[in-house]
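Consider the tokenized backbone below.
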């Protein structure tokens, strides 16, 4: 049985920053995450993607942000249960909870914080018969490392920000050849990203094929060719080493949806006083929660975690008075 003051479900940026804020109050944290490493989406999905809205950093790569948050949390020695998913929760009879993972690891804490981002993600897969035959053999749903595509022929499908951003990135000195295929004439991306891709197509840096879907895959043991069909029903083929269909990820709360929490549109409703749920001692912070005026931004999650730990301190130490101290005066070792 792993015991801790605050058990955090989700080791993404918001969960990691909560370790720091809790540590300032001398509260120990343990984190559970289904991924094999900390960082959440920032590590698993887009470690090389730039983020522009972290205070104090005009630009920082998602992976670098995770590295910095880990360094910031390290003085408080958080514990980690990685590669396991939180599955069940039961009251321990003393005002706290026991959370058990899918691999049977048990954790006990008076406070449980759900910081699991948007939950468990699965890619939206196109209805292509041969799709499964080429998964991880030329078909990838996430760009984890751009260097994987160095000097390769790449076809990207999609019309959202992710598809356009990666098309632009890979075509700038990484891939040998990049083609963007989109089923429509219009995009669901930021206008600046759309213009960049159009400019690249006009200059010949990428191939842009609109009103077209990828409908077939072929190759001998690995992907060698995609078959495309336009709105007129005409089919064409294109040689490629990789096809990256970026049609988005479908988030699901998974087992947490069965924890008797108040759910609204696949998110957990919270009280904005302290981001508590309808169950005493259980909080939800970051993209996993919902309330009036909610913004799904990392920096908002940082704020929610900061406020939450103040409430958690009162629950864990009802007889102690917490006096707010400033790190500029005390430093982290003065707490």
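A designed sequence for it:
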């Amino acid at each position: 049985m792993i015991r801790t003051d605050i058990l955090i479900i989700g080791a993404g940026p918001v969960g990691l920053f909560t370790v720091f804020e809790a540590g300032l109050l001398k509260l120990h944290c343990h984190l559970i995450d289904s991924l094999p490493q900390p960082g959440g989406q920032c590590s698993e999905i887009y470690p090389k993607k730039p983020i522009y809205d972290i205070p104090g950093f005009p630009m920082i790569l998602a992976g670098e942000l995770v590295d910095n948050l880990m360094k910031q949390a390290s003085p408080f020695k958080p514990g980690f249960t990685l590669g396991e998913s939180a599955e069940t929760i039961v009251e321990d009879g003393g005002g706290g909870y026991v959370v058990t993972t899918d691999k049977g690891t048990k954790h006990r804490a008076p406070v449980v914080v759900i910081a699991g981002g948007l939950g468990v993600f699965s890619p939206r897969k196109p209805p292509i018969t041969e799709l499964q035959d080429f998964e991880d053999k030329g078909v990838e749903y996430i760009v984890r490392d751009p260097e994987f595509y160095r000097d390769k022929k790449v076809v990207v499908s999609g019309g959202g920000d992710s598809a356009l951003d990666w098309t632009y990135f890979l075509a700038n000195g990484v891939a040998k050849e990049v083609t963007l295929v989109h089923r429509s004439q219009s995009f669901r991306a930021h206008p600046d990203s759309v213009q960049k891709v159009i400019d690249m197509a006009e200059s010949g840096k990428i191939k842009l094929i609109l009103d077209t879907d990828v409908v077939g895959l072929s190759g001998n043991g690995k992907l060698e060719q995609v078959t495309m069909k336009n709105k007129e029903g005409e089919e064409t083929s294109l040689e490629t080493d990789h096809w990256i269909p970026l049609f988005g990820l479908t988030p699901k709360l998974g087992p947490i949806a069965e924890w008797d929490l108040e759910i609204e549109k696949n998110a957990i409703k919270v009280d904005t006083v302290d981001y508590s749920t309808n169950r005493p001692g259980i909080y939800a912070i970051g993209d996993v929660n919902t309330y009036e005026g909610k913004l799904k931004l990392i920096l908002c999650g940082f704020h929610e975690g900061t406020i939450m730990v103040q409430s958690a301190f009162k629950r864990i130490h009802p007889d102690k008075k917490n006096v707010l101290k400033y790190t500029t005066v005390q430093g982290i070792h003065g707490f």
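Residues 2-121+249-334 form a domain with the FAD/NAD(P)-binding domain fold (CATH 3.50.50.60).
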